[in-house]
Every structure is written in C-alpha cells, then in structure tokens.
Design brief:
The protein is α+β, with helices and mostly antiparallel strands. The protein has a domain of about 45 residues. Helix content is about 30%, strand content about 10%. It has a two-stranded antiparallel ribbon. A two-stranded antiparallel sheet has the order 3-4. It is elongated, with a radius of gyration of 34 Å. It starts with a strand and ends with a helix.
C-alpha cells in the first residue's frame, strides 16, 4: 500500500499492516488507526536519497552488430498477415492448428505402395530454366 504523508510516499508491508492492524477503506484510500494506539513512522533513508554522478563509457558498435540490428524484423500480428477476405479462417493460420492434420473422416483412405517400389526422380511438368531456378529456390527456403 502506498501512503501519502505530506510530501513523502511510503510502501507499507504486510508484516507492518498485521502488527498495527489499521482500518482501511479501500474505496476512498483512507486508513485509520485505533485511537488509543500511538504510531511513529521513522523517516526512511533510501538508496535514491544520495546519488553519484553517472559514469559514461564511450563504446563503438561493431559493423556486425549494426548489420544484425538492421536485419531484425518486427514480428507482425497474424491479422496483418492474413488478407481481409480470409479473416474468417484466421484460426486455421495459427501455428498450432497449421501444424496438425485435419480430423479423420469416414471417406479417408490410405495409398498403400508396394514394398519393393522405388519412386523415380522425374519432373512432373516441364519448366523453363528461370522457372526451375525459382522453384528450386522456393523449395530450398521453405522445406
């Protein structure tokens, strides 16, 4: 509890409050002590009463630190990343949901491969060299 006493502010701890047991009106912020009891509050000498001048250190930022600082990106909120027409499906873009498979349904089926089957490495559709390069770059970044 913070208590205003003239120009001074004070934080009263639970042991002090239990010992003195004042009546506190939390709505008005007033505290009343029992009339027969005399309370003496000593002036508190805190760490901030005396201070020393600051010690300034001249330090230079390394180029690598500057580059790292420039590379830091601000993480955008999911609402900013999803187009407005897909906002109704926002829950499907959240990390936990996006990493899960959909629930099993009655019409789901398995594709069983033969045990000795080895898939061939072939292109499913022809791409120009520029398209192939872009696709390879995309797959390298995202897989």
């Amino acid at each position: 509890m913070i208590l205003g006493i003239g120009n001074e502010e004070m934080i009263l701890g639970l042991p002090w409050l239990r010992y003195h047991n004042p009546t506190i009106d939390w709505e008005t912020g007033e505290m009343q002590f029992h009339p027969r009891r005399r309370i003496q509050i000593k002036r508190f000498r805190g760490v901030l009463d005396e201070f020393e001048p600051e010690v300034l250190i001249g330090a230079k930022i390394m180029v690598s630190q500057e580059m790292a600082h420039q590379q830091q990106t601000v993480k955008k909120d999911i609402k900013e990343l999803i187009p407005s027409y897909l906002i109704g499906y926002r829950d499907r873009f959240e990390k936990g949901k996006a990493e899960q498979f959909p629930p099993a349904r009655t019409y789901d089926h398995a594709i069983d491969l033969k045990p000795d089957f080895v898939p061939r490495n072939c292109k499913l559709y022809p791409l120009s060299p520029i398209e192939q390069e872009e696709q390879d770059k995309f797959l390298e970044e995202n897989l």
